Amino acid sequence: MRVNRTASSSRTGGSLLSKTPRLGRQGGLELTARRMLDGLYSGRHRSAAHGSSIDFAEHRPYQPGDELRTIDWRAFARTDRLLIRRFHDDRQLPLALIVDHSASMGYGQPAKHDTAVLCAAALGLLAIDQGDSVRLLAAARSAGTAELGGAMGATRLAQMLDGSKADGAGDLAAVLRSAVDQLTKRSLVVVISDLLGELAPLLLPAAELAARGHELAVIQVLDPTEVELPAEWGRVTMTDPELHEQPFSCDTAEARAAYNQAMAAHIAACRSAFAGVRADHLLLLSDESVAQVLGAWLERRRRR
Amino acid sequence: MLGSNGGGGGEAMISFLAPPALGAAVLAALPIAIHLLTSRAATQRSFPALAFLRRAHAGTARRGRLRDLLVLIARMLLILALVAALAAPVARMVGGSGAPVVVIIDASASMQQRHQGAVLWDHAIGTAARLSDELAERPVLALVAGSPLQRSGLVPTLDRGGYRALLATAKPGWGAGANDQALALALGLLTGGGDIYLIGDGSRGVVSGIDPQAMPPGVVLHLVEAGGGGDNQAVRSIGLEPGVAVRGRPCTLRADVVNHGVTVVTLEVAVTLGDERRARTLTIPVGSSVTVAETFTPERAGEIPVAVAIVARDAGASDHLAADDRRDGAISVRPSLPVVIYSDADPTAVDGPLKPLLAGLGAAGLAPVVLRGAQLGELQHAVDDLAVVMTVALAQPPTDGRALSAHLLGGGALLQVLVSDADAALGGALGGIDPPLLPLPPVDLGDRRRGLALGEITLDHPLLDGLRGREPLLRQIEAWRYRPATLGVVATRLLAWEDGSVALAERRIGAGRWLALAISPADRDSNLAALEVLPLLTARLGQVLLPRSREDCALPCGTTVPSAVPLQAADGRLIPVIDGACGLVEPGLYRAGERLIAAAIPGLESDLRLVSPPPGGERTRISDGDGAIAAAATRPLWQWLLVLAMVLVLSESLLTGAWRRTEQRT
After folding, report:
1. What is the pLDDT of residue B315?
2. Chain-chain contact of B56 with A259 (C-beta, under 8 angstroms)
3. ipTM, interface predicted TM-score of the complex
4. pTM of the model
């Protein structure tokens, strides 16, 4: 069902918070990164940089200016060479959420946008619960948020997501391009969209994000009727909520076979294309349980 | 409708027998209207993945539009084909030539019925004329199946002069018609194949004697019903009981009055004998008859006209053939019932052979005249006077038996009692007529204590019917002198002696009867007289030997009667004598001197009800007049349109079914 928002709950985000599954607290799940990321603060995720953790990383030759306390004297005794001991550095996992707010996301019962918001909230809260920071890169028209964390961060995140609505023609490629500029730290970038637009414009910024060390995950939210066109609709005249083109009339009983085939091919193309930039792809139907689908997805990520 | 001989080459023109049905062709717009209505009624829906749908459906949409167009065309053509079939399209052949045609017009009495305000005959003649026009390219011959049978020419011809002349002059008869004879003649003319159109009224008389299944190959029989089938009431027969009317003795006139209608009718019927007229009111159920019987006592002898007529009917009844409402007849009333005994025995002898005969006849109320045997050669009564002649104890057989032969052939009766040798020789004197008994020399059993007893007794004969219950009496008959005899060639044995020789035999000669009794009736020869068996036998003779009844006092119309003089009809017209006979063409009374002859419509012709003809083969077709004319030179096309409709239904099913199969596969 579509999320019923009220003015007060929209301000506080309480409604969304109450509905959002706490994957970390209740499900024992963990948001992990497959790549070495670099948060600002120390955290639970191993960083690409070396730091002050207790996990030994490597030796390197002494160079003038290195602190003497980092010299491994035992190694000097064995090898008669001055070697510096280096340790891993544990940092936070910066999570960047990009939610598609285009008009096409308002389709379905419940609306795809509601599912996307719920999904983003769940991931954001999971990250905050883990002590990680969250950034919400909403849309091109929105400048996005600073890093959010802690209890206040969760409330702020809920407020922002709850206040969003699906409207207008979204430009997801532009949001991704802006993310390339905005994200200065290696982050886990989660894009939540129906991906019904052109796929090719998305791939270039996605590849650029990957090249800069970000890890990309794409959650494609679709309505079941978009995956399989219902035959029982019969003869209908359809309009695109985003593109103001001529209405299109057809008999869904006749068109469904070809459409289903084309949509399956498109989903497969999305999965294949994002795999090319080492991005995860998750298909989420708007009538599915967000907690279950995300839980299974996070579990798969953890095992990898 | 033409058969396989329907004509040669030529151009075909399409026309419709029921053109108003073509108005239903507007229904062909129905599929278009439904298509437009359903397409406009499509629901509006927002769909984000419309671009995918648009691209994916582009190919299938083209195929779908083509399929929709084909289905639409198939459905429109299907409706048009059915509408066209309902309009009964026919192809009319123009300019061809074909097999010969014989048109038979039923000229029986039932064709004179009035149908829808006109005489049915006129309708039949009109149908025959129009039929000839429709078959302008085919040789035609007309046969008017009446009495006599008339024909427009020797063979079918393209010249319509004789055909039209016959139709202009032909009139229906009052007889039974001669459709069977006409059909036989037509089949003889159409040995190479052709069509026969038999135009009738659809009653039983039309196909009487015709076997529609017996049409030879190449010949198609068309039974054309030119109308008919109306209600009718008629006097079907008029009879007399007993069969011989005698002055001063009561006789009964019987008539069957039949109701060939669909409602119960009440009729007033008048029965007339001479000047005496009686009226009766009858209520007759549907499809049945009532017998009216009136007993008269004629006061004078001679030919007396009789008649039974429907003189009034209730207001609700309708009658389509008035000519059979009255039936005339004529009866010959005799001055007395003559019984003549030719015998040379002494009538007063107590133990003579005459005594038991006279006693029996006297008991029956008959007064016999006893004449000498020598007078037998002249027969002292008129030949056509149905008298009873008895011979017994003749002294000499007649030298000329022609008078006695004429008596028997004219329906008279003869009882031959074999006593003397002259009695035994009587059979030989009637040269040309075999006697019932072939006698042998007499046998005298002398002084035997026991005579010869009867061995075989047949009591189911009318003559012996009065002796039922008296078999013990018959068993007591004994004869001490008898004449053994064997049975004649065509005679019936009634009584036989225990030694196998025949005692009593009968032979029928037309309406006449010849009985031969080989039992000596004298007391001294047998105990017949003492047992009073012989009086019982002779007492039955008056009733048995004369006809009990006369079924119809009128001859059917169309028959000819031998006459040396022209018959005079009731209106004074004279019926000429042709080859020694006069034809009774019309119903009514005809007079030939003192003699009266009546003619009547055959009973079958009064039944005007339509009947289903006997089932015919594929070469027999039934239609009404208009249908026969319409189909005469045309070929029906509706069967082909139905075939086209079925093909269209199949195509439509394949188109839609193939689509559904594709859907199911995906």
Report:
1. 83
2. yes
3. 0.75
4. 0.49
